[in-house]
User: Fold this.
Amino acid sequence: MRARRPSKAVNIADLRELARLRLPKVVFDYVDGGAEDEVTLRENMRAFASVAFRPRQCVPVRECALSTTVLGEKLAIPAVLAPVGYSRVFHPDGECGAARAAGRAGTGYILSTISGHKLEDVKAATTGPAWFQLYLVGGREAAECVIDRAQNAGFSRLVVTVDTPTAGLRERDYRNGMSQLLAGNVWDSIPFLPGLLAHPRWLVSFLRDGGVPELPNIVIPGTGAMPLIDVASALSKTAVTWSDFEWIRRLWKGPIIVKGILTGDDAHKAVDQGASAVVVSNHGGRQLDYAQATLRALPEIVAAVGGQTEVLVDGGIRRGSDVIKAICLGARAVLIGRAYAYGLAAAGQAGVERAIEIIRADLDRTLRLLGCASIEDLNASYLDKSSSFGS
Assistant:
């Protein structure tokens, strides 16, 4: 029997089901879906399932050390909450609730440029590390403004996403009419009324929260805040290029993380452009379908950077055992996206807290079963060579 409340959720799949029940189909599919045939979306998870453990037996593990550091910032667990665009549409707590949950758990939160809450409010909500993710939507002037605001607010790291030269075709969203819903036009919303009315808790909270406001962190000089509906077209006009990093480095005084790397060649280029870390990412299968699963790409990236920069990875992570497999293959830590987004959609901040609790308990239990006392002690010897990558 599935959990009826987030507090009773046993795993992330339980939170996903609670999110599905609470959200209208058009919104749930936006959270849950991927690009085109969703092959990469599925392969991200299958890659983790294909890797087997080699545990050590009769090893006394009285206490597990789950903490690590990423770019000098201490994390209670080796998992940071990834940027999830406009998560306020899932629940009014949105980015502020997720950031607050991350801080209470002692880990980091990455705020998307495409967020529903002001970046200053999100930074104030968390006691943990807060990083800002940058898109160039709105052009350089808008980017310069938001970079300055993020630095002044106290965000410590800049995460530059490089895998969105255009928006991927998320066919669920296209068929469901997500763009019409996000346009905020009353007449365009009429076809959605039966589905929205079937989820009254979500609808009431959505309307009380003001529906679909403009994006407070994309402010175009002379025009104002960008409407959410304009983001897709704006992405294709403002793709990040390697030459942009000289300009970005002049503006941002702290470490820069490059997110969206899948090849060793691009990892080298990121290092050459001054990246302090790279994130092996295919955007959760939401951009280029049939792109390589991130866990499979990870060993190539780790080998390419050769210790010059830290390596993080995201995509398909649903259990603490997935986190451990990624670390065994060379990742410093992981980013989790849908895993906490399902919790946010199910119950706001409380749901995010439950998602983190599940991952933390998984980590502790898996380490004990492996006979390993610390995240820092993990390495490829804990994986079966016949099933792991890069062996």
Q: What stands out?
A: The longest helix spans residues 349-370. The CA atoms of residues 199 and 230 lie 27 Å apart. The two ends are 40 Å apart (CA to CA).
